[in-house]
Write a structure and sequence with these properties.
Radius of gyration: 17 Å
Number of helices: 6
Order of helices and strands: EHEHEHEHEEHEH
CATH class: Alpha Beta
CATH architecture: 3-Layer(aba) Sandwich
Number of domains: 1
Helix content: 25-40%
CATH topology: Rossmann fold
Strand order of the largest sheet: 2-1-3-4-5
Strand content: 5-15%
């Protein structure tokens, strides 16, 4: 039986959606007899994290926990230590513990780590690949996420999903469509977006 441990399932927007989806076996691609557990431990507390993972012995861990800041990522600029504790130390703690226990770990990360450059020019059609190193660090949030992604590439048990401008089927304030309706100005530049109703059910 698959036993899936989810972090970010209590307070995180994507984590809650993920947990709700998996609670209904008919609505996703996971085995119908899979068991879903919502993690309680803080990712930055390695001792508690290790104890929880050891206690539940999951077959898979999904990490949708992280600091994005409120009202936006600018919060991270003045709260760098808190951002590091969760997004860097916490994420690496989880990946490392899972690796040592031979548990597959999926990290819901961000695609906000790239920008157009000489090799990837606007309109050229040349995109970034999984192996490209992040080249955008104008925000502290993106800088930490880019660094962590490089380190996570050392773990063979880890899958990183680059979520970018997520679109959902509700009017949540986190939904990109809801956000953009409130913008005074919209810039017409091609970008990547993530449709959660397509991503989250994927096995």
């Amino acid at each position: 039986m698959a036993k899936i441990l989810v972090y970010g399932g209590k307070t995180g927007w994507i984590g809650q959606k993920l947990s709700s989806l998996m609670a209904d076996p008919s609505s996703h691609g996971y085995p119908p007899n899979s068991r879903v557990i919502i993690g309680d431990a803080r990712l930055e507390n390695r001792e508690s994290l290790l104890a929880e993972i050891t206690s539940h012995s999951p077959t898979h861990v999904l990490n949708a926990a992280g600091v994005t800041g409120r009202p936006n990522v600018d919060w991270c600029e003045s709260n760098k230590e808190s951002t590091i504790r969760t997004n860097v130390v916490g994420t690496l703690n989880l990946a490392d513990i899972c690796s040592a226990s031979n548990i597959h770990c999926t990290v819901f990360a961000t695609g906000c780590i790239f920008e157009y450059d000489a090799a990837h020019q606007l309109g050229s059609g040349v995109g970034f690949t999984e192996s490209d190193v992040a080249n955008f660090d104008d925000s502290f949030y993106s800088k930490t996420k880019g660094m962590v992604e490089q380190l996570l590439s050392c773990y063979q048990n880890c899958l990183v999903l680059r979520v970018r401008m997520p679109i959902s089927d509700d009017l949540s304030g986190r939904n990109f469509i809801t956000k953009i309706l409130k913008y005074d100005r919209i810039v017409n530049i091609p970008n990547s977006m993530t449709v959660l109703t397509e991503l989250l059910p994927a096995r």
